[in-house]
Amino acid sequence: MVIVIHQSSDTRNAFQYNEKKIKEGVASYFHSANTLSVNPFMYDQGHRWKILHDIEKQNPRVKKKCLHISVNPSGSDLLKLDDRTVRQEVDRMMEHMGYGSQPYFVYKHQDLERVHFHVVSTRIDKMTGKKIRDGYEKDKMQKFVKELEQKYQLKQEIPAQLRNLKFTASSGHLKRNLESLFKELNRIDIITSKELYDQALGLFQVEIRKAGRGHMVFVTDENGAVIRHPMKLSDFEERPRFYLSRQELLSQEQNKKDLPNTLSKQNHEGIAIGTLKSLIIKEMIWQMQAQLNGPLEKRKKFRLKEQSKKRKKGRRL
């Protein structure tokens, strides 16, 4: 079981993100609590937003008003937790975190090849108009997760998308997920060369190899052995920018300018795998660059140290 408290400052963004998933058909209304209407999901989106917005208007000075939590059970967790139990435990979680009396909406998502839940509420107390204290939130949530795992004998198993971002012999929707990976890598400015791009792909056990006049995409194991049937790079709509011709690169850049950047907004609010990959890739690329620059920095320090010794020696003479 993984429960994430998202650092969303704007409640409207988190709310609209989940409502949009409903319209796209990849999420459903699941649960609500502490609203005047018995079932707020019977009404339109404006009705639900008004419930939260009216509370937040009491305290316009607070910048980070949003409470956005995602509950991510693994496949084995869901065998032990039915919908009724999940609703009960979400209520218990909100009570544990100090938001038990607040109005909140729960959405059931099924857009990442797994079921997970998003909870949207506000940090502004509906009674006092003051911000609810949120100190030690992570510690409190970790305590709740441990209690939950013990109560239902859940394994400490992280969903595959979070536990291991590497592609494997059993990875589903391979072509689509590879395109997603290429797209995320293409957005990262710190990857300034084909070599760095290939190293980043290697972190996911993906290789691009020259084959005749074109290139093939391979998924490998940790030893570099091919474990999936290779695919032509030309068959991908989204391709690594360092493998595009100049004309294709210009065309891709123009398409990005013409199209609204809705995907990045969606990823920004949820636990979407694209955002997670992007953040982790940035960190790993930084580590790789640190390793590459490490020997150079050591040589610089060594030269400076030697120059300092010579100057001291000269003064003595």
From TrEMBL:
Residue span, MobA/VirD2-like nuclease domain: 47-154
InterPro entries to which the protein is assigned, alphabetical: Endonuclease_MobA/VirD2
Pfam families: Relaxase (PF03432)
UniProt-recorded name of the protein: MobA/VirD2-like nuclease domain-containing protein
Organism, as annotated: Sunxiuqinia dokdonensis
